[in-house]
Amino acid sequence: MAGRKRPGAASAWAMAATALLCGAGGEALAAQTPRVLLIGIDGVRPDVLAEVPTPSIDALAASGWYTARARTTTPSVSGPSWSSMLTGVWPGKHGVTNNNFTGRDYDAWPSFLVRAERERPELATFAAVDWLPLAELPEGGPVLPDAIDMRVVLNGYDHGWAEGDAEVTARAVHHLGEADPDAMFVYLGNPDETSHRHGSIGTEYRDAIALADRQVGMLIDAVRARPGFANEDWLVLISTDHGRRADGGHGGDSPEEMTIFILASGVAGADEGSAANPATAGWPPPGPADIVDIAPTALAHLGFEIDPAWGLDGRPLGVSR
Question: Which residues are 47's β-sheet partners?
């Protein structure tokens, strides 16, 4: 986007990362345009993820930052969990405690995409989802409203969840090739719905996770194929909203339901076997993390100061605890 404005002062998070990179190509990286791609895969247990062949996710994790010990919301259901991931605050603030989204207050606690639009309208934002309540709700806005520059909104129950995820991925890949996005959120719902449908975490669920990994690979390939990729500093974040029990259910406070994974990786240097990952250079070793840390991490990478007045409960993953 021609004439894009950038903030005059980088955040402490960004300044620390840039300082660590200087002397090793850091000068070039510091001039790159920061961009964020958040991929949300619904209902993935980290211990099951570790057992499924997922080469795309594994390559990102191998050279990036990964924890399988992060915590989600109480209750461990999609409405509050996705709301917390996208806004950076717990349900006590955004008000969503169920999948009906009653009590929501996204005006006061917007998603990171909406907050980016409010603070710097010149940023180009994108969201693609096939779980309808994330983008369409009666009597009040959803967490991903039409204030976002480009939205792809499908209904997985109508399309079929595997088909819906395939279309969401294709539309996001097309956008990466044809547009100039600064911040993106792509939602994949098939693993969760497959586990619910079969009442297990068995073969069908694992196949759905493997399919989601292939879709992650398509998105990463599309990022790398961008004409301006050499001048872009992409941070890829991948996470899930909740775990699940062996019977496919969730919503309780057991470790299997409450534990999620979070992955953060640059795309440059994230090829399998590579140890260099400038986007997460200087980050502390993976440790305790929460679902509310994801939105602040995205905002910090985009160059925002995390204003205490925003009242965020999370903090950027690259900041020592």
Answer: none
Residue 320 pLDDT exceeds 70: no
Contact partners, residue 163, CB within 8 Å, separation at least 6: none
32-305: CATH topology is Alkaline Phosphatase, subunit A (3.40.720)
**DSSP-assigned states of every residue in 194-247:** HHHHHTSSSHHHHHHHHHHHHHHHHHHHHHHT-TTGGGEEEEEEEE-S----TT
Q: What is the pLDDT of residues 107-160, one digit of tens each?
A: 999 999 999 999 999 999 999 999 999 999 998 899 999 999 999 999 999 999
CA distances from 23 to 27, 29, 235, 272, 275 (A): 7, 11, 21, 25, 18
Burial class (CB in 10 A: 0-12, 13-18, 19+), 292: buried
Residue corresponding to tokens 């967490």: 143
Residue type, 264: A
